[in-house]
From TrEMBL:
Keywords: DNA-binding, Repressor, Transcription, Transcription regulation. Residues 3-72 form the HTH merR-type domain. InterPro entries: Cbl-bd_cap (IPR003759), DNA-bd_dom_put_sf (IPR009061), MerR-type_HTH_dom (IPR000551), MerR_fam (IPR047057), Meth_synthase_dom (IPR036594). PANTHER family: MERR-FAMILY TRANSCRIPTIONAL REGULATOR, REDOX-CYCLING DRUG-SENSING TRANSCRIPTIONAL ACTIVATOR SOXR. The lineage of its organism: Bacteria, Pseudomonadati, Bacteroidota, Cytophagia, Cytophagales. The keyword Ubl conjugation does not apply. This is MerR family transcriptional regulator. Gene3D superfamilies: 1.10.1660.10, Cobalamin-binding domain, Methionine synthase domain.
């Protein structure tokens, strides 16, 4: 059960705090409890209801009408109205509300619809990633239930694997990339998405996944002969060891391009070897992939 302040609700829903207070007072929309110091605190049910209300009001429904709906009626109305392929904010709200309800069927439905409208890559960039950023805010607020996050990340992982398997085969002569996560690093979604985008662009990938000791890269590079090596640094290595880790990877990979992605790789003042790059955003990584593609040979 989450414990959100009104500023947390504002960040997570996109609804201004003064509007939330007005809706609460006028329509009894939310049911906060007060702390010993008289501060309103809201629970997961309040957040889920606010997200659904936000979705319906953004589709032109009157707040007075929406506030009178039961939770079941509101959820049914949300499913019926999330049909704008480019209304990313409302799609994210609907997904977050479904996650809070542990509603796997609705999560699956919403992700599948977004992928059908936008294509899989755009769904990940414009819907799934903003959703994960909202979840990050909940972790920072101390209001995230690990089971809810596991439900969502497991579902996204399944979809990434299925989408990658559905891609056509890539010839061994294509540009080659090794993808891995460092020792004790288990946050895999970004690396799985990078693997999908590379394969979708006709690149060859060797996906080594989670928890690979860096010293194993030498034999991998000697055998597979990659053009580039990619890793994502979310929780590993320790912040103070990132530069040393980059030097180790660079040494094992010779002069190959090394891509370090993730929050630990974006430290200000971080000094990296000359063959290492650290894209700030996933779209920067995709631009880098485009730059690395060989020029077509003239007929």
């Amino acid at each position: 059960m989450g414990h959100f302040s009104i500023s947390d609700l504002e960040q997570l829903s996109g609804i201004k705090a003064h509007t939330i207070r007005m809706w609460e007072q006028r329509y009894g929309l939310l049911r906060p409890v007060r702390t010993a110091t008289n501060i309103r605190m809201y629970c997961n049910d309040d957040l889920r209801r606010l997200l659904n209300v936000s979705t319906l009001c953004a589709r032109g429904k009157r707040i007075s009408q929406v506030a009178s709906l039961s939770d079941a009626e509101m959820q049914e109305a949300v499913l019926a109205c999330c049909n704008d392929a480019h209304d990313y904010h409302q799609q994210v709200n609907a997904l977050l509300a479904a996650m809070l309800s542990f509603d796997e069927q609705q999560l699956n439905h919403l992700f599948n619809e977004a992928a059908a409208w936008l294509g899989f890559e755009k769904m990940m960039l414009y819907v799934a990633y903003p959703l994960l950023q909202r979840i990050g805010l909940m972790w920072l607020a101390g209001t995230m239930n690990p089971a809810q996050e596991h439900l969502l990340t497991h579902l996204l992982r399944q979809k990434l694997l299925a989408a990658t398997d559905a891609l056509p085969g890539v010839p061994l002569s294509a540009r080659r990339w090794v993808l891995f996560l460092p020792a004790n690093e288990l946050h895999e979604l970004a690396l799985l998405f990078m693997n999908y985008t590379l394969r979708a662009r006709g690149q060859h990938t060797l996906y080594l996944g989670q928890n690979l000791p860096v010293e194993e890269l030498g034999v991998v590079c000697d055998t597979y002969l990659p053009d580039a090596v990619v890793t994502v640094l979310t929780s590993q290595p320790e912040r103070s060891r990132v530069a040393e880790f980059a030097r180790e990877v660079s040494a094992h990979c010779g002069n190959k391009l090394v891509v370090l992605y993730g929050p630990l790789a974006r430290q200000e003042g971080l000094e990296l070897p000359a063959n290492c790059v650290s894209p700030q955003l996933m779209t920067d990584f995709l631009a880098l992939v485009g730059e690395q593609e060989p020029e077509p040979v003239a007929a």
